[in-house]
Amino acid sequence: MSGASPRWLRSFASEAVRLGLLSLASLGLGYVLTLALHATGLAPETAFGCAVVICSILNFFGCRHYVFRGPKPAAWREAVKFFPAVLAFRAMEVALFALLNGAWDNHHLAYFATAAVGMASKLLVSRLFIFRRKPQEGAHES
What residue ranges are annotated as transmembrane (predicted)? Predict the structure, then answer.
């Protein structure tokens, strides 16, 4: 058991780092897409909405193939769990931000606290319920 726990912890830490990198890439891409779509004449809200949809689809494949490694079930099995979870997390983040901003009267602190709680929650839910992978024996985590 002692050998399995450190291996699981290393795997989990690697997934957390990869999810962080994917999140940063998604943030940048979402911003660029929003700007580009707005430049084509779309309203900022429409451009942002389109960027969120595009980034959510790309995040699914990024999580599936980059963040959570190992044997994979059919894509649709994970997709039917992933996309409703994305909507639920967005709603939770909006509610948490409103709660924290109201309590602290500091939208900067509320933003980063919400982002931290959201990322930790997404990692746990994704790892435990959506992208359930068994660490591969002898596999190198990067």
Answer: 21-40, 46-67, 79-104, 110-130
Q: pLDDT tens digits for 88-115?
A: 999 999 899 999 999 999 998 999 999 8
d(CA 71, CA 54): 25
**Cβ neighbours of residue 112 closer than 8 Å, sequence gap 6 or more:** none
**Rounded distance between C-alpha atoms, residue 111 and residue 93, angstroms:** 9
Residue 10's identity, in one-letter code, is: R
Angle between helices 44-62 and 75-104 (to 10 degrees): 130
Instruction: Please state the domain extents for the chain.
Output: 4-130
Q: Which of 82, 92, 97 is nearest to 127 (CA)?
A: 82
Sequence-ordered list of residues with C-beta below 8 angstroms from that of 58, at least 6 positions apart, any chain: 26, 29
Report angle CA 48, 80, 74 to the nearest 5 degrees: 120
